[in-house]
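Aim 2, interim progress: modelling of the cobalamin-bound target.
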Amino acid sequence: MHVTLVKPTLGRTERDDRFIDEARMEPLQLGVLAGLTPSGVDLTLTDDRIDEIDYDAPTDLVAITVETFTARRAYEIAAEFRARGVPVVMGGMHATLLPDEAAEHADSVCIGDAETVWPRIVTDAAESRLAPRYHGAFGVPQPGVMPRRELYAGKGYLPVSLLQFGRGCRHSCEFCAVTEYFGRRHYARPVAEVIAEIEAAGRRDLFFVDDNLIADPEAARELMRALIPLRVRWVSQSSIDHVRDSELLQLFAASGCLGNVIGFESLEPADLRAAHKGPNLAASARYAIEIATLREHHLQTWAALTLGYDHDTVASIEETCEWAIANRFTFAAFNVLMPYPRTPLYARLAEEGRLLYDGRWWLHPEYRFNHAAFRPARMSADELTKVAWACRRRWNSPGSILRRAFDPATNMASLERLAIYLAYNPIYRRESFKKQGMRLGTR
Ligand code: B12
Ligand code: SF4
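Predicted structure of the complex, ligand included:
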């Protein structure tokens, strides 16, 4: 029995037939699927962001992980394998949220987490009796299972190990797919398993890809206390309320945290209220106190900003960009607000008749990466696309990179931090420029 695990790329650029992602990170879900695979099964990990897919290589089952942005490419890949008689199973965020759509392109769809069903899927495929649907229980990540990281060798991933402490989040932001997937539940792994995984991975630089690392603050504290003796450097994603918990903040700094992705989203309280962005509602004006506190602890910040809420104008978005540069964040993402399927935002915009691209932008041949897919309230979709792109260009300009570097509290707090800042900012700059306006899928 041979199984091929596939991570699709986003699509194609003006220059290249297939987007090769220079800033690619290890595909943790495929490492986990490999770890869950019964022994005696041969595995190939094919990452379409770097590998040329060999559709003719003999294999008995192809397993594709699907996000909304990679759905179009995932369906193209599936069609090639199925045309050669190879069964395809799909899973992941998008396949779980829209199983009927995925089922049009696959022999089988896994809804939910793989942990409880993947061994059965492989056995059923080996016995040629793959069911059309499998329902995986949502729960604690990979109990007793290590991701098979040796499969990542030679693929040129960034030298950072991805791992998960917990999954899910207790908040319910209007635009977020995670709440739809996990239903406001949070599941954390036993700390001892996480520590054993870190020791086995043998790397000092870690990215906890939790949806919200502090969703359960007590569990997060326990994790961080256990990280202190390991002397690792790590980053994660945390909602802004962690900044108001001084014990938690001290543990972040003491356990080697360089910083967090923080969803600031917007500077306009009315938009935060409309988006049900709970953790941000108690924040100070323009997050001034929270940012000062993060700086006191020398934490670097990756600011996630979402552009196109109902109070946004071209001018307010430009001002948000200036605010981010003035705060000298380490990284920032200027994301256009996206109606992801099955989110409350999607339902609201559909009801208000504001969705573009027939409501299924992820499959629409005219849709382009980073373009607005709905009609904003106070500008046109085209204006939103253009101002978001202007923010990305401004943020990634050499002047902005230099200006942000000069911050003794964060990016210059140590040589090591400055080295990371200077190594990654140019990579993200190049990748942002390449991805802008890319076609989803390759045809
Ligand atoms: C880490 C991460 C990233 C990393 C990428 C890491 C990498 N390896 O390349 C970075 C920061 C680069 C990133 C970028 C983006 N991301 Co991202 N990311 C995540 C995050 C936080 C964790 C993903 C992960 O590794 N989870 C750990 C694994 C083990 O869990 P899993 O993927 O859920 O897989 C489990 C199950 O789903 C299932 N499963 C998954 N695949 C398959 C396949 C089969 C066959 C089977 C049987 C089961 C199965 O089994 C697994 C184990 O239980 C998720 C949030 C989330 N909860 O998914 C967002 C998330 C996937 N990202 C999201 C987005 C929007 C993006 C961006 C588009 C943002 C942007 N505007 O640029 C980009 C582009 C992504 C791309 N494809 O290029 C959205 C996607 C929404 C959607 N509807 O698809 C998510 C869900 C975040 C959110 N809050 O909504 N991301
Ligand atoms: S806090 Fe973050 S992970 Fe939680 S629901 Fe909101 S956007 Fe999603």
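The first helix runs from residue 28 to 36. The mean pLDDT is 97.
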